[in-house]
Amino acid sequence: MKNLLTFLLFVFSAGLCAQDYEQESIDYRKKLSLEYKSGENQVLTDREKKNFGYLNFYDFDPEFVVEATFEKLDNTEELKSKTSTARIATYTKYGYLHFTLKGQKCKLLVLFSPSLKDDPEYYNYLTVEFTDETNGKDSYKVGRYMELRAPLSDKVMLNFNATYNPYCAYSDRFSCPIPPAENHLSLRVKAGIKKGFKSFRK
Fold this sequence. Notes:
Elements: H1 2-38, H2 46-51, E1 52-57, E2 65-72, E3 78-82, E4 88-101, E5 104-112, E6 125-130, E7 144-149, E8 155-159, E9 193-199
Antiparallel strand pairs: 1-9, 2-4, 2-8, 3-4, 4-5, 5-6, 6-7
């Protein structure tokens, strides 16, 4: 009886966690769409903003919320990253996230931009840029990003339902870093943001 109650409590708790992440993902996509619609991020032209409905997302999938083990890198090795233009972006390698997704063992490099260290809002901003088997099909061809904030604990929850596209996915006026080759996930991450956006006009 005790084992049964423990199991039921676990199932109930897992259900609540899934609901929390689903609501978090819904709130996230609303907020992100509003940034484009309102012009807060200055990505879309006035004409595009008038036609803009909302960003494209996959349906929420709890299987793409995973716990990762964080491996911090003690060195300050730099990474020179190609971008969607001729510009070269400079990052510091912050650490690695190790996790299992859809039965596959995965590893993603976490990056920090030294240019943000004195920014009062983004001084602790970390980015995880990745590619997967949906790129160029359902999702943006260059890849997708995920935001984290330093410091990271030994265990990190990764919610792939809350990913975003670089600005260059919507306008050629922007120069966006291309994800490191080692950050390719050899599976279809059918969660989070897709390419393009929904327009009010057909």
